[in-house]
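Page 42, continued from yesterday. The earlier attempt failed because a stray header line got pasted into the input along with the sequence. Redoing it now with the clean sequence only.
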Amino acid sequence: MKFQRSLWRLLPAVALMFTGVIARSQTASAPAVKNVVLVHGGFVDGSGWEGVYNILKKKGYTVTVVQNPTISLVDDVAVTKRSIAALNGPVILVGHSYGGAVISQAGSDPKVAGLVYIAAFAPDNGESVSSLIKNPPPGAPVPPILPPQDGFLLLDREKFPASFAGDVKPEMAEFMANSQVPWGMDALNGVVTEAAWKTKPSWYLVTTDDRMIPPDAQRAMSKRAGSKVVEVKGSHSVYVSRPDAVASLIEQAAAGSSTSKQ
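This time it went through. Structure tokens are written below.
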């Protein structure tokens, strides 16, 4: 009888111990976020994400490639949010170049668990891509943007490969140059009003050979956003030339965002 009474006294402590073990086990084994939304930048469409898409799909992720019209930031955010709404569960939102401005605004959506910037602009509240590129540092490469036509921008086709796709196969870089999507001035000048990186965890891939967004500008924006940073040797089109590196960072974000929510 004394043994039974002692055992009953111990039960609450034993139960508490097992509760802690179970909680720690659940935290350690929390599944990564499995939905990924990919947002392209200016002058291109979503087809450049094919390599990244294929890698992530093979690893079990549900991947959506957004086809933004890049006419205005407001419209692109709306299109991106529709893609987010169509998915079940939390989402990792990925943006390349101007797509970084899109995800900075669209990332305030409650379903977005984390942001991934790929050689991208990460505007603060009140900033636009236009304001971020207004005063380039001395010696910084100047993107070969042609004068606007009817409110839209294009890159010089002859200079496109060297500036935008320096490490992409020549035939692919030429195709990208000749299949450009006009980039609207309203997109370039669109102002972010609710920078999601202020409240959401973020990751940033800095491309050290970038001739569109200087690497130091990428470093400054990623530092300001408090992003976890990975640097790779690559051009502005790293998502085309190095899909493995891009997919790897997205996987880190998917695992890290899941852990941060526990």
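Notes: The longest strand covers residues 112-118.
Reminder to self: strip header lines before submitting.
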